[in-house]
């Protein structure tokens, strides 16, 4: 991770591994996490577009280096300013793991954002991050998790909601196009049909 270099990933300055934990020293981001920002105010389409562009760019780079983040959520997205420009950065890289990896219900994970294949096949690859990205976008536009939250659902109920999910069950009429289309693409239950971060960048045409 020390060799990772991308403006949309928090820079890893140093790290230490033991049999029980990993300690990362990361660059300082002077602004709030995305979760804190959404709790304080509404965000406009310009900010959402910046967030989508920057996060997909960071994910595509991370995946190209053979790693999956594995815990993409609002609290792990931070804001910084570089050369008077706002930059969205993906943090909490201690959850990153090689592609592919095994998924265990006994390990640490965030049930609200995990993709169906994690529960059905016990695997994690780069498209898990794409699914989690779709969950995050859904929450930005609706204020809710699509499959429930631990405040009102058990872990088992959330897992069953994910495994039995169909996009048609969601009410997305209040989510404008193209964001609703993007969310539907990310929340594709079939792993083979779910786009990669790079494919989403090309589809959205941020150039």
UniProtKB/TrEMBL annotation:
PROSITE patterns: PROTEIN_KINASE_DOM, PROTEIN_KINASE_ST. Pfam families: Pkinase (PF00069). SMART domains: S_TKc (SM00220). Keywords: Kinase, Serine/threonine-protein kinase, Transferase. Residues 1-207 form the Protein kinase domain. GO terms for molecular function: ATP binding; protein serine/threonine kinase activity. InterPro entries: Kinase-like_dom_sf, Prot_kinase_dom, Ser/Thr_kinase_AS. PANTHER family: OVARIAN-SPECIFIC SERINE/THREONINE-PROTEIN KINASE LOK-RELATED, SERINE_THREONINE-PROTEIN KINASE CHK2. This is Serine/threonine protein kinase. It comes from Algoriphagus iocasae. The lineage of its organism: Bacteria, Pseudomonadati, Bacteroidota, Cytophagia, Cytophagales.
């Amino acid at each position: 991770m020390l060799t990772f270099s991308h403006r949309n990933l928090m820079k890893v300055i140093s790290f230490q591994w033991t049999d029980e934990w990993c300690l990362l020293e990361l660059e300082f981001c002077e602004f709030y996490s995305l979760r804190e920002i959404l709790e304080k105010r509404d965000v406009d389409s310009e900010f959402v577009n910046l967030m989508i562009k920057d996060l997909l760019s960071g994910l595509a780079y991370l995946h190209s280096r053979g790693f999956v983040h594995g815990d993409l959520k609002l609290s792990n997205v931070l804001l910084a300013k570089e050369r008077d420009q706002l930059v969205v950065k993906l943090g909490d890289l201690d959850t990153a793991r090689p592609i592919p990896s095994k998924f265990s219900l006994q390990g640490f994970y965030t049930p609200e954002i995990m993709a169906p294949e994690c529960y059905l096949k016990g695997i994690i690859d780069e498209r898990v991050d794409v699914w989690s990205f779709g969950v995050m976008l859904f929450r930005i536009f609706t204020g809710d998790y699509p499959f429930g939250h631990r405040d009102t659902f058990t872990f088992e109920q959330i897992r069953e909601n994910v495994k039995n999910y169909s996009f048609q069950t969601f009410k997305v009429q209040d989510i404008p196009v193209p964001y609703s289309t993007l969310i539907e693409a990310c929340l594709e239950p079939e792993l083979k049909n779910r786009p990669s971060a790079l494919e989403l960048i090309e589809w959205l045409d941020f150039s």
